[in-house]
Amino acid sequence: MPVSITFNVDADLLKKCAEILGEPVTVDRDGTGDVEIVATKYSLNANTRIIQSIYASLDNLNLKDIPPHVKVCNNPGAFADSAAEQAFALILPSIKRVFYHNLRTHKRIFKKEPVQTLKGKTLGIMGYGEVGSRIARIARAFQMNVIAFNRKQKEDPNVDQFAASAARLIAQSDIMVICLPLTNQTRGLVNSDALNMFNGSMIVNISKAEVINKPDIFWYLKRFPEKVYATDVWWSEPAIVDEVPENCIFTPHEGSEVPGDFNEAVMKACRNARRILDGIDENIIDPTEYYKLQ
To answer: Domains of the chain by range and CATH?
Structure first.
């Protein structure tokens, strides 16, 4: 069964993909294979049976026209370690006031001032998949309390409590990290109503910008200048068309820009496609959760 990879990969990675799949694999942007390994685009043809993304979230694909017989699969865990690290790369400079003190010491002002600690604080993880579980593991090293919210709860020694609702998690978190995929249900989930329930000091977004209602978070940051919104994603990226609030820490979607992670994500996607070819249906999503967003 021919497999198409619809983006550029080098010869070494292409060979590894062929070994994993046990099928002929070509780089083919037109997606003429029965199985397509995709990043940001796919092409339907008469032979298409499986569309396998290299990403965990599929909002970047227009899934409106997928026929029922085609299996569409995401790639949970892809880039998870680097995304979890990025969350704490955003958290720690705020908690320790790194930017503020760096500017002052460069001006030759050496003055100690109180900073916060993560120890004993409650970290709320909104969306407890592969990324969320890695964030919880790191939080434990900082001796944080961890609560999580997910549609499907699972036993995890790194979680003190699974919140009964998103509202409960928001209300109980000192720091809230958003790890949700962007679907019909999660778009704009964090809006003014949710923000009014948040009593913590910091919201971190390493998932998709559109999970946050932009006018509402801008209003919130202006109203509460002591609060911090730290994000690795932006609504119009790569264009920055808004005035970024001063109490917003913003990085250019670099959580997945770690050398080697891309190749591992591609091979992970190939392993999942191989399982499906073997009759083991894993990580198959319902396109209707996404296509109405287009």
So the answer is: 3-77+259-291 (3.40.50.720), 80-250 (3.40.50.720)
Q: How far is CA 17 from CA 29, 54, 206, 272, in A?
A: 16, 12, 28, 11
Of 22, 53, 57, 49, whose CA–CA distance to 37 is shortest? 53
Q: Taking each helix axis as running N to C, give the angle between helix 130-141 and helix 80-95, from 0 to 180 degrees, rounded to the nearest 10.
A: 40
Whether 3 contacts 273, CB under 8 Å? yes
SS3 call for 33: coil
How far apart (Å, rounded) are the C-alpha atoms in residues 68 and 233?
A: 32
| Cα 294 → chain centroid | 19
By the 10 Å C-beta count (0-12 exposed, 13-18 middle, 19+ buried), 149 is classed as buried
Q: Is the peptide bond before 238 cis (omega within 30 degrees of 0)?
A: yes
Q: How far is CA 194 from the centre of its chain?
A: 20
Q: What is the pLDDT along the chain (294 residues), one digit of tens a residue?
A: 899 999 999 999 999 999 999 999 999 988 889 999 999 888 888 889 999 999 998 888 888 888 989 999 999 999 999 999 999 999 999 999 999 999 999 999 999 999 999 999 999 999 999 999 999 999 999 999 999 999 887 789 999 999 999 999 999 999 999 999 998 889 999 999 999 999 999 999 999 999 999 999 999 999 999 999 999 999 989 999 989 999 999 999 987 778 789 999 999 999 999 999 999 999 999 988 876 554
* Nearest by Cα to 67 from 99, 42, 38, 97: 42
The answer to whether 283 and 272 are in contact (CB under 8 A) is yes
> 3-class secondary structure for 219-281?
HHHHHCCCCEEEECCCCCCCCCCCCCCCCEEECCCCCCCCCCHHHHHHHHHHHHHHHHHCCCC
